[in-house]
Specification:
Its main location: membrane. The protein is mainly alpha-helical. The chain has two domains: about 1-220, Up-down Bundle (Growth Hormone, Chain: A), CATH 1.20.1250; about 225-430, Growth Hormone, Chain: A (Up-down Bundle). The protein has helices at about 5-10, 15-45, 50-60, 65-75, 80-105, 110-135, 145-170, 175-185, 185-195, 220-235, 240-270, 280-310, 310-330, 335-365, 365-395, 400-420. Helix 10 packs across helix 15 (about 365-395) and helix 11 (about 240-270) runs parallel beside helix 15 (about 365-395). The longest helix is centred in the middle third of the chain and has 31 residues, at about 240-270.
Amino acid sequence: MGADTTVRHLLLRGDFRRLLTTRLLSQFGDGVFQASLAGTVLFNPQRAADPLDVAAGFAVLLLPYSVVGPFAGVWLDRWSRRQVLLRANLLRAALVAVVAATVLAGVSGVPLYALGLVVFSVTRFVLSALSAGLPHTADEPSLVSANALSTTLGAVATVAGGGVAVGLSRLGVTGDAVYAAVALSAALPYLAASLVVAGFGPGYLGPDDGPDAAGPDRLTARAVVRGMAEGARHARARPPVAAALLAISAHRLCYGVLTLVTLLLFRTGFPDVGGLVPGGLVGLGQAVAAGAAGTVLAAAVTPAAVRRVGRRRWTAGVLAVGGVLQLALGLPFTPPSTVAAAFVLGLVAQGVKICVDTTLQESLDDDLRGRVFSVYDTLVNVSYVTALVAAALLLPPDGRSVAALAVVAGGYLLTAALYAHLTRSHADLP
């Protein structure tokens, strides 16, 4: 079946369209909220942040989710995922209103980061539920295309939400007031997402054994640890899953380093002297847009590439080629080459994610899928924040570091080789 036929088949399914719409609305709201928070912390003339502040902010926002995440995974295997998506989006709508009030009041530092932490924790909960519920809206032969379409359009929706937020921030007064108003506007798509997902029946998105299938016992810390251990054993017993988790974790380490390198280059490393790709915020926006374009291209080519060469070869190949190109495009340290590197990074990130998500969805038992996806999310967050903090401590202020790019390139090449080695007995991965 051709790629177009597969996509048409998916879009003919009302349940897939409903879940996709839920994702798009939810991630559009994420883009609005994330841009408002970034504007508040990084580009608000009433506030200022250096690279260590940025890394610390990411750590405060994401690392604690490594503690919250395991509970989310167990809940996703106990509760109706439809109810989780409905209530989580309603909760986020309420929380962003609190964040908006906090920004308007001029609060900064740990209190603001703590509120952001709560919103981002719920966001990861929503994304895990969307991924865990996707196999209930697509048949197995279409899962690669379903992941390509939904995650890529979701990423585009996030970028679009960020773009709308930037546009809104330029319509009113500067400073805290405008960013508070932008943050509050994120509540609208969250409320709309809740309304759309309410169209599913309570048990439609799983778990397969029905809500509360794991029993009515209270969700204690011991029960969570036990559940996570079960999920980890379930993943470890399946070499393709274990290799996929290794690949995405290593990629996120490299991604974290490259994120801070790009941010520092456009903040201080490139003079804002105009041109096709200027320095400063405009150039950084072009890099983000280039990354989104790479994401779209990955969604377009990955399903066909997987059918042609197999998921194993495609994943290893994308990692290896990505490592070489990051070094080649990054070393000139010019705005155009950095934007080109961002395009490649977007392609690598989405190409790997599509394959990893599909591997987990196909290879895991449904009643443990939520727990493994929470392990997945925790690994992604810890890897990303670890790389950000290390880069903030080691990179020069302008981000120009040949050593950092060499380490990233070597990391990608080593990961490609390890992934190919660990999956060598599964060379028939579809």
